[in-house]
Amino acid sequence: MQKCLLINELNVSMKKNKLSRSCGRMKLKYFAALKATCAIGIILVTTTNVVGSDCRASGKEVFSSYSRDYYSPDRLKLFDQKESVKAFINQTDEAATVQQNLVKGTVVDKNGGPLPGTTVTIKGLAGGSITDSSGNFLIKASVGDKIVVSFIGMQPQIVNYTGQGDLKITLLEQVDELEEVQVVAFGTQKKESVIASINTVKPSELKQPASNLTSALAGKIPGIISYQTTGEPGKDNAQFFVRGVTTFGYKTSPLILIDGFEATANDLARMEPDNIESFSILKDASATVLYGARGANGIIMVVTKSGREGPAKVNIRIDTHMATPTKTNKLLDGVEYMKLYNQARISRNPLLGAYYSEQKIQSTAQGLDPMIFPNINWYDELFEKSTINKKANIDVSGGGQVATFYVAGSYENETGLLKVDKRNNFNNNIDINRVQMRSNVVFKLTPTTTLDTRIQGNFERYTGPYRSASDIFGMVMNSNPVDFPAVYNPDPAHKFADHILFGNTYVTGSLKQNPYAEMVRGYEDRNESTITAMATLAQDLKFITEGLKLQIKGSVNTWSKYSSTRSYSPFYYDLESYNQVTGAYTLFALNPTSGQSYLGNVYPGRDASAHNYFEGRLNWDRKYGKHSIGLMTVGMLEEYLLTGGNSTSIYETLPEKNMGNSGRATYDYDKRYFLELAYGYNGSEKFSGDSRYGFFPSIGGGWLISNEPFWTSMKDLISTFKLKFTLGKVGNDAIAGRSGRFFYLSDISKGGGNYRWGSTFMNSYSGYSVNRYANPNITWEVSTKYNLGFELSFWDEALKIQCDFFKDNRDHIYLTRQNFPSTAGLEATISGNVGKVNSKGIDGSIDYQHVFNKDFWLTGRANYTFSTNEYVELDEKNYPDEYLKHKGYSTNQWWGLIAERLFVDEAEIANSPKQDFGEYMAGDIKYKDVNGDGVVNSNDMVPLGLPTVPEIQYGFGLSAGYKTFDFSFFFQGNARVSLFINPGTDDNGIAPFASRRNALSLIANDHWSETNPDVHAFWPRLSVDPIANNNQTSSWWMRNAAFLRLKTVEMGYNIPKNTFNKIGLKSSRIYFSAENLFVISPFKLWDPEMGRGGLGYPPNRRFNVGVQLSF
Amino acid sequence: MKILYKNLILLFCLFSILSSCSKYLDVVPDNTLTLEDLFKQKEEAWNALAKVYSYMPQDDQTHVSSWTLGDEWLGRLDLNNNTDNLRAIRIMRGLQTVSDPELGIWSGNQGGKRMYEGIRQANVFLANIDKVPDMTDQEKKEWKAQVKFLKGYYNFLLVQRYGPIVIVDNLVSADATTDQLFLPRSKVEDCFNYIIKLMDEAIPDLKERTTQLNLGQVDQVAAKAIKAKILLFRASPFFNGNMEYFGDFLDHDGKPFFPLTYSKEKWKDALDAIKIALDACSANGIALYTYEKEPYTFDREDYIANHNKLKKQYDLSMVITDPWNKELIWGYSNINVYDQGELAHSTNMRLPEGYGDGVKNEPSYSWQWMGATYRMAETYYTKNGVPIDEDQTFNRDKKWAVIVTPGDQDPAYNELRGIMQPGCETINLYMNREPRFYANLAITGGYWRTHGVKIKTMMYAGKDGGFNSSQHTTDFYESGIGIKKFVHPESKSGAWQRTIKYPYPIIRLADLLLMKAEALNEYSNTPTQEVYDAIDLVRERAGIPKVEVVWADAGIVRSVDKHKTKEGMREIILQERGIELAFEGSRFWDMLRYKKAVSEFSAPVWGWTYTGQTGADFFILEAKQSRKFTITDCLWPIDLNEMNTNSKLIQNPGW
What we know:
The complex is a heterodimer.
Chain A (H helix, E strand, L loop, with lengths): L3 E4 L5 E4 L2 H19 L4 E5 L6 H14 L9 E4 L2 H16 L3 E9 L9 E4 L6 E2 L5 E6 L4 E5 L6 E4 L6 E5 L9 E4 L2 E4 L7 E4 L22 E4 L11 E4 L12 E4 L2 E3 L1 H5 L6 E7 L2 H4 L10 E6 L5 E16 L8 H15 L9 H9 L11 H5 L4 E13 L3 E13 L15 E16 L2 E17 L3 H10 L22 E3 L2 E2 L2 E2 L3 H6 L1 E19 L7 E20 L3 E8 L6 E5 L12 E23 L2 E16 L7 H4 L2 E14 L3 E12 L8 E12 L13 E15 L14 E4 L4 E3 L5 E3 L2 E5 L8 E14 L4 E18 L14 E23 L2 E18 L20 E3 L2 E4 L3 H5 L3 E2 L9 E3 L7 E2 L5 E3 L7 E11 L2 E11 L2 E3 L20 H5 L22 H4 L6 E3 L2 E13 L11 E9 L3 E2 L19 E11 L1
Parallel strand pairs in A: 3-4, 5-11, 17-20, 26-31, 49-51
Antiparallel strand pairs in A: 1-2, 1-3, 5-8, 6-7, 6-9, 9-10, 12-13, 14-19, 15-16, 17-18, 19-20, 21-22, 21-60, 22-23, 23-24, 24-25, 25-29, 27-28, 29-30, 30-33, 31-32, 33-34, 34-35, 35-36, 36-37, 37-38, 38-43, 39-42, 40-41, 43-44, 44-45, 45-46, 46-53, 47-52, 48-50, 53-54, 54-57, 55-56, 57-58, 57-59, ...
Chain B lengths: L1 H18 L22 H12 L19 E2 L12 H6 L22 H14 L8 H26 L15 H4 L6 H15 L17 H16 L7 H4 L18 H19 L16 H6 L1 H11 L10 E5 L10 H5 L23 E2 L1 H6 L22 E3 L20 E3 L7 H6 E2 L3 E5 L2 E5 L24 E2 L20 E5 H15 L5 H14 L4 H4 L15 H15 L6 H7 L3 H5 L3 E3 L7 H4 L3 E4 L14 H6 L10
Helix pairs in contact in B: 2-4, 4-5, 5-7, 5-8, 7-8, 8-10, 10-16, 16-17, 16-19
């Protein structure tokens, strides 16, 4: 039995049989004594002759972990003989008599501001000094001493005292511990020992004027492919994928974990970068296998900040930005519209004659009374040019020995571009008020026990238009500039009408859409709240064995959303008569009985969910000489309860559940060779029997070459060189929507096969429908991931390069089997786990930082992601022609017809293969009959262009600081992506004139006509009807959607510290930033990132002014 | 070691906590509905039976009806580009495609029911019905027979449209091998034999005649009549020795799909089946319809004054719409009681102003836009029961002359009373026609008994029954000729309760009688009296002279004794079918059977100028819609999707 004796300088001693038991008390006692008077850390003496390594190690760990702020492990001295202790004490007493100088100095931060409260000590000695409010200190030191300057949150600095005069010491902010420690699944690892493919971004890099975090992801993180198709506030979440889309199954998006708890994309979107401690992407098998149930599509892991011991720090940030569309579409002016409409009408059927009279065209051109001759640019009529948004964020952090806290609150107001009609007494514009609160408090219950509590609430109050703002943008295309004004000024008969006189007219038997009326006729009132609470109890179990820790965690989240959409039915009017001389006009009511002047028709929306999670976990880390071993096991239970909106389906409202056990073993030898094994064993409610649980293992290895002895000579140049390889299988149970998830059950419902008999037809039975045939074998989608990566850094980490090559072979993809003939008579589709997709790619990043001198620094960063995939198996039809088969092509590849050009004349049509898409004439698109069967139909569709999701995404930027100024910019680009313009008449279709739709001005300038039979014109022969022949997906409408945009620019000015010292301001910064300043792309029609949806709510350009204050 | 041991215990504990709740993942309650539940009691099994029936084609529904194939119907032209509407007419316009076939019943494209799904449901039913505990064996047998018959009927509907089909006699399971899944098409003759075999198996177990609550279900009479019809198709030239069309339509084995040699004996088979069916009809009181009730009040005076003619009008105009009348052999009972869309609704005219005591003019249930093509105005016989071109008493040359009908007081008006308006503008073509003409068509100068009133139809723009730009810009009869056959006099608009519901005939006695005449004529070398007797039964009810009398009368017909040759008689029978069964989906198939569809249906359809406000403006013929029907169209295309799926399939010729 080993005995340990603890002595402090005051000669208080304790005898204990077991070190482990004494540790807790020993520390507290010793701690107090040490702080006041101790010059030397700790003297640990054993009564035996041999100092046990356990004793030594645990002593070290106790002190380093418990009171890092006060000790460095250097100050721990270990002795194995009482005599030596005495000798040491004597010696230090002697040392104290060495002549000491009174050293004067100032401590400042990197901006030159004083740092009051900084601890200044002499290494190896107790006592020391603390700087005053101007950052000055006085301390006694001898030549050769090491003066240690430390401040919470700053990198401690050690100055060798050589007898120099006044010291000026600049402390740099502590670069997050992330530099050393990497967040991994269920824990952290030392960065150098991580062999999984994990990328971490600094939260500051995600800062941008837009208040949606997901829109900041593109190009910022290697391995993420992201794009944002709309700028509508509240609906502007970007799509994002880890390593691209690697499956064609139901769920392609990554798992999002916020503080280890699954969260939604909306939760992520609303995260305030200021509150984020670390933001990581887990990409390969080794990193994701532990989340076997959901990890297959990669993981985004966010950890929020927690407090640090020390005085309370307050951070305030206030931003105001102006948002304006990056680009709005140009529409035809009224006069041109009418002329071209007439042309379109006659073009296909000369008998029809002109629709708009020459008199109307002339009068409109002259700009006569806009009530009678409207000429409306609906974009101007409906939308403001810009809108102002505001945001404020405050956080307070600090703590003492019992607890540390981080409390944050933020408020945000975001508005849309919609105009509001003053005649209504409600606001139909998008107006979102968001309040967010976060309270992260860590209690130290005992020296070995901590309780980490995190509570977060997001509250969103939304009012917005009756129809979504994107729809209203789309409606512009459904109206036209000349048929009616948005609102008529009342004529004498309607002078006292108590409602707005919206303009409208009948087209082919139904009223047109008046976008203005649709916009102002009502509003949506919505409240959404999310409350998340988490508690983690961590217990150090070193009394059982060194390095063993237990952690129990429970998380609860409730989310609810309820809305009421209130509206009235607008009264529509059309012009009845007009007196050319007096200008007087009369209106007639188009819907005098169905209009309604008060808000009625409330449409309710209700949705809510609860999400519960429990986990228990054991970690054991131990080092034996050069061998480091780590073991981890975790069990978890997870449950979602949901209403599924107003769903009444049994299957849709049953809870979703997962449970499982995961584990990991890590080993490294001498920080040179690393090995990691991990597994996940997960169960899901979606499967049954043997298929219910899936076992997902992974293995990885790494070699830190730069730690090899032979590397020493190169270390100055290449400071780190690591190779790593992992492979493993990861599961995914989210393979179908909620209502269709119980694959092992057949789904039969009453109805859908009714028949009635009887003399009065009342002997009626509803029949039944088979919605799904049972398939008990359906099971997990499995991803086999390979990752080969290297990390390189040069010149002491000034330049860092990391790169991963990956393969993701997805199999067991759940799909609807295509290859079933109709003759089998199946009523529902048959599905199976038979799909396979192989993905591969590269992602990497280059970081460079250089501090030229204390006034000038520069950092640069570039990211690159390339991800491509191909169908390997999709149970395809037995197509007669190879090009019809999707196998071997990307899951985002589109098939379409090859458009040769426009038909020259009717003779050419007669001599060309028949095109099986309705009627067509000269000037319509001529397609290639690929299989040569004399008919152009869907069997002539070939893979066209590139995938519609970018295969390459990249970003690069520079930040620089000069004295009190800083400047940064960031470019982001997509490449290898195609876009198909929608030439139809649906919401995002650009076809002009059908049902008197609007027309893009581009079409006026570039279309086929008899007078200008350009067979390569942008638009085929005009028509006032939809022409199905031209609406087919074809190469005619395919465009290269690659782009490079200046995503953000920021300029900042740090107000010199002294300026506001008196009010306790430690630092302050004023900055100006801008987002989406310009985009360079071969596609000019609209912002290429919008893809097909170019007529919707455009992405925003933003100009932001902000101030950041720290107290 | 001890430490490790403790570790293990801890690990084990944690794990056991989790695995102890293995029930945690069972979230689905036990009592959700499964297929087995449907066969646990009779009341549920009814649903399974309904399911099998539910694949019957919805010929009542305007946009998916196959009755509008051919050249009898004309709908709204502004819907011409609308692919979801008037699909049968789209076929006639030459718009049939392989990509998404109109009314494709092979895979269920564009309004077609998925016939193979129906066949599968039948197989599911047959495999499970014996499990129902609370049904007697007799009931099960009878239900099985119904289902078996339907299985055969669905196969026939496929053969009718596709010729050779894939025969799926057994349930295909979801994990079937490719050999079981991907089947080739069978020869036409094998298909017919298969269908007839199913029907022969079913017929003895069927009820002889269904009644009351079960009306609409298949019984022996219906099954025998349908079987007869199938055999008639088999004997017809299209399916019987059609070297001309299908001489090079060969199977994988190099043998023709269609029987290329004509077999006269097939007519004998058909004839025998028709006779059996007719016997069953007479044994069960099925007879040609005549109106037996009191006339409506608005007709009471005319009914007395012009009794015979008006009684005939009543007999003829309610053959279809008098629900479950004695002429109906099998009716489609699955009408959509609560909704609109039937031919009854699209053909009914709107109630004009001034009628119905101020009842509002509602467009629902009286769409007023399905009308007849001009051809139909010529097809009907003259009052002598012969075609207008044959009738020497009919002034062909002046048929389009605008005239005025005799005035109310004019004795010449007596026989027109209740049929044509007095002193009213119309044209010669509309005069001196057979009673069915007046009973079926809504014409200028006539009457339409609908909405519970008697409307004087004028069909001119702005007049009753005509185009009215201010009230209904799209709802008008494009040809200016309405169809009264499917509108019950009491059917009103506005709500489902106000319409009279009736079953749409799948087969009725007049059809069977004419089939008998046809089969007899084809089987015998020259027409016999038996042929004339069969057709005369129908003509007698129609109020026209016997065929052998009038065609022998040189004072009336031009081609005297046409009825004495087989070919002449064939033409007479086909025209008789065209008139008696007009608009009921018969003419298209008759022309197809005799390989006349291409020549008959390729010409444009015509109609009057609906914008005309006077006789002079209105009675000008306009080509309304071009039509294109080729040999290729005679067989429906198998959809591209299916062709891409099953490589054993051979596409129909031309597609």
